[in-house]
């Protein structure tokens, strides 16, 4: 099996070499050998980096992601936390959809003042309800 040089992993994954070294320090990835001073990785590192990126996008810390990868091949999946975060993402998606609808209407509203538009007022009420159901408070 041909190993991937750190530069090739960086190029394919879009992750800087300094971040790859940091991820290795955190236990997220592991180099298999070195060619001179350059780290060498197996092809599975690209999938691991994709999972790290998704975890970060989901709001997990690197330590939480490392724990989910597990040590010794036994992942520690916080299933309740994953469910709660997925639910929060769905609520946020509904809120963002309501906001997007409102913004599109404002951009296309034929009324001289969108604040006087019945459709805009209806969309505003929907957006406020979505925000209230999501438990978000204006800070």
From TrEMBL:
Family matches, as CDD domains: HTH_MerR-like_sg6 (cd04781)
Annotated source species: Tritonibacter scottomollicae
GO MF terms, alphabetically ordered: DNA binding; DNA-binding transcription factor activity
Record Gene3D superfamilies: 1.10.1660.10
Domain HTH merR-type span(s) in chain numbering: 3-71
Protein name: Helix-turn-helix domain-containing protein
InterPro entries: DNA-bd_dom_put_sf (IPR009061), MerR-type_HTH_dom (IPR000551), MerR_fam (IPR047057)
Superkingdom, taxonomy of origin: Bacteria
SUPFAM superfamilies, per the entry: Putative DNA-binding domain (SSF46955)
Swiss-Prot/TrEMBL keywords: DNA-binding
SMART domains listed in its UniProt record: HTH_MERR
């Amino acid at each position: 099996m041909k190993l991937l040089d750190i530069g090739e992993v960086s190029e394919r994954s879009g992750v800087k070499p300094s971040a790859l070294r940091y991820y290795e320090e955190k236990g997220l990835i592991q180099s298999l050998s070195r060619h001179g001073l350059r780290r060498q990785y197996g092809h599975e590192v690209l999938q691991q980096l994709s999972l790290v990126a998704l975890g970060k996008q989901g709001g997990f810390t690197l330590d939480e992601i490392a724990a989910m990868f597990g040590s010794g091949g036994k992942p520690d999946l916080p299933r309740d936390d994953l469910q709660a975060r997925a639910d929060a993402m769905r609520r946020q998606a509904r809120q963002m959809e309501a906001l997007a609808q409102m913004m599109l209407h404002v951009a296309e509203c034929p009324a001289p003042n969108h604040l006087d538009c019945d459709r805009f007022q209806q969309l505003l009420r929907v957006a406020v309800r979505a925000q209230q159901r999501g438990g978000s408070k204006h800070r």
